[in-house]
Amino acid sequence: MNDKALRVLEFNKVKEEIKRYALTGASKDTIDELVPYDNIHEVKEHLQETKEALFLLMKKGAPPFEGLYDVREAVTRAEKGGTLNPGQLLKIGNMVRCARRFIDFIKRKDEEEAYNILEDICAGLTPIRKLEDSIFNAIIGEEEISDKASQTLYNIRRALKERNSSVRDKVNSIIRENSKFLQDNLYTMRGDRYVIPVKSEHKGSVPGLIHDQSSTGATLFIEPMSLVKINNEIKELMLKEKAEIERILQQLSGYVYDEIIAVKNNANILNELDFIFAKAKYASSIEGICPAVNDNGIVDLVQAKHPLIDPKKVVSSDIYLGREFTSLVITGPNTGGKTVTLKTIGLLHVMAMSGILIPARENSAVSFFREIYADIGDEQSIEQSLSTFSSHMTNIVSIMEEADNESLILFDELGAGTDPTEGAALAVAILETLRHRNCKIVATTHYSELKGYALRTMGVENASVEFDVETLRPTYKLLIGIPGKSNAFEISRRLGLGNDVIEKSKELISSESLQFEDLIQSLQEKSMKAERDAREAEMLKLEARKLREKYDVKLENLEKTRENAFGEARREAKQILREAKEEADQILKNMRELERLGYDSDARRKLEAQRSKLKDKLDKTESVINKAEKDNGETIENVKPGMEAFLPSLNQKVVILTMPDSRGDVQVEAGIMKINVKLKDLRKSKETKEVKQKTRREVNLNTKSVSSSVDLRGLDAEEACYNADKYLDEAYLGGLGEVSLIHGKGTGILRKSINDMLKNHPHVKSYRLGEYGEGGNGVTVVQLK
């Protein structure tokens, strides 16, 4: 997108606001380099990632970015095999710990919500716990190494502590013995060695090495000979400590080098996540929403606000075009908000196409434009001797050379700065030329001729910024469908101009002009009310549709739950019946055993009566259960292979595969199983239908040799497109309905080339990026004709 439009629309100020929420220099650099994406797939993906980050912020709070720093310099040094200082190692340790915590943060779910894009990004994070622990065990601060870094360092520092304690006792003893020769009864350090302040006239009284003297020369700092040996031991231990620290730092730097690929990858991913969450935090501050994105030029911004105006003062506007009209002509008084409206529509589109949520109401929509051109403001130059008109016309000439049907064009005061008659005619000609190219245009003007042009031209609509005559102030609200009314007479009357002057002024204006102004005034209230009611009705319709879809799903789940409950109850009843039969059989067996042992005929008759009574009761119970099963659905009479039916015994739908055999059995498919059941046991379900069998193309090709996907990673764009085209021909001949083209994520160049090839491919019905679980935006899923 051209830099001039981004500069005029003040996109850099939005980026500066987002940078306030970024933590690392790397992510701030990413924000500085942010420009609108050049295809609609990337726009939708980056808007969705920002939306997911915003939901995460609201549900889980701030992400675990504590201690995250810019580690690019440290990683580059480690990659070259250099030794890192403690501060650099500590930053890398914090970054690695942040990566591990972020993995846990994204995996922790309160419900079954999915953050597909963020989860896909975080899938590349690698926990390096060993490196993390090694760094934090060894380093306390940016200049401090822990005693636990190594056993050798621990021993050296313990010995140093003992020597220092010993030398302090020794030097205190020397001070007491030579106090009369000393300037002060205390010791000090010179070059890491203990010395005492001796008066210069008594330097021979304290034998030792002179290290320094005071500025006046009255005091000499002498290291007594008795301290030389122990001071040498301390110095030697300090050198050993320094060498051991250097060895530890070199060892830790080696650990980083061994894991440099994972470290570098984690750093890049965390910088990207910091960038995404900075956008999300900014969206939260402006109450941003994720708009729908289309590529057919439809703009529908509901209660849109300019993001750089104070939220307490900004006035929201409904801005739309692209359906009934493609050009919008805005008229109204100066300082009424026309330019702000232009900048709002332009800036919100730039933000959306850069993956930034916009300050508007839900259900707003933006269109993907290849270019946004903006001629806003006066850019006259003394050096170039350009007048206001010339500077505007220079911009307009440049715009008309490049604009096409994928362009949004914003004109501020079109045709201004020259003779009104010629300027108005020129403005109409410019708008007509661009309209015939199907450009989307929003223009502001003072010329009344453009109001008439918009009224009589299909595809062009009038709009105005509202002006309150009572308060003599603009309301800054945009009124689409209403051309602006000058209100000069009303304003003059309220400011005290005499009625006779105003009436005389009216006489100088043609009656047609006055009638036109009156018509505008009468239409304004009616149109505003109708437009407001229509948009409110549309919003309510969308909300009602969402509620209906929501409750349809709930009703379907309720029906399934009830059906499952009935099936479970029937199975439990059959189990109870089966157990009762087994118990009854056991009782009858016992009765026959007793009968065998000897009972008279009367007892036998009584036992037989009880047995018959028990059998009748069981048969009655079984008939009730069977009747309930029959009520579950009608029996199937006309059987066709491929028909869907319900099998009560399994409580699930099945597909009939064969016609009934001589015994009345049919083969059915239940999930992955194929079983034989009695036709009489099958029931018609409420949704019984014939499953269409996929027609197969009869070709001389072994379909088993055609894979459902092809891997194009590592190829250049031309070779990948050739291989993809050849594979699609084979898949089409093989009868495959859906295939996957694996191109990887990378820079997106390979994906763009393949998608451009798919647009005009004869075998392609539709295509889309992979969803969660399919490979995300590293895969394009293609539906074949």
UniProtKB/TrEMBL annotation:
CDD domains, per database record: ABC_MutS2, ATP-synt_Fo_b
Record keywords, A-Z: ATP-binding, Coiled coil, DNA-binding, Endonuclease, Hydrolase, Nuclease, Nucleotide-binding, RNA-binding, rRNA-binding
Positions in coiled-coil regions: 520-631
A molecular-function term among this protein's GO annotations: mismatched DNA binding
GO biological process, one term: rescue of stalled ribosome
Pfam families hit by this protein: MSSS, MutS_V, Smr
InterPro entries registered for this protein in UniProt: DNA_mismatch_repair_MutS_C (IPR000432), DNA_mismatch_repair_MutS_core (IPR007696), DNA_mismatch_repair_MutS_sf (IPR036187), MSSS (IPR046893), MutS (IPR045076), MutS2 (IPR005747), P-loop_NTPase (IPR027417), Smr_dom (IPR002625)
SUPFAM superfamilies: DNA repair protein MutS, domain III, P-loop containing nucleoside triphosphate hydrolases, SMR domain-like
Domain Smr per the UniProt entry, residue ranges: 710-785
Gene3D superfamilies referenced in this protein's UniProt entry, alphabetically: 3.30.1370.110, P-loop containing nucleotide triphosphate hydrolases
Enzyme class (EC, first level): hydrolase
Subunit structure: Homodimer. Binds to stalled ribosomes, contacting rRNA.
Family: Belongs to the DNA mismatch repair MutS family. MutS2 subfamily.
Role noted for this protein: Acts as a ribosome collision sensor, splitting the ribosome into its 2 subunits. Detects stalled/collided 70S ribosomes which it binds and splits by an ATP-hydrolysis driven conformational change. Acts upstream of the ribosome quality control system (RQC), a ribosome-associated complex that mediates the extraction of incompletely synthesized nascent chains from stalled ribosomes and their subsequent degradation. Probably generates substrates for RQC.
Protein name (database record): Endonuclease MutS2
Origin species: Clostridium manihotivorum
Taxon lineage: Bacteria, Bacillati, Bacillota, Clostridia, Eubacteriales
Gene assigned in the entry: mutS2
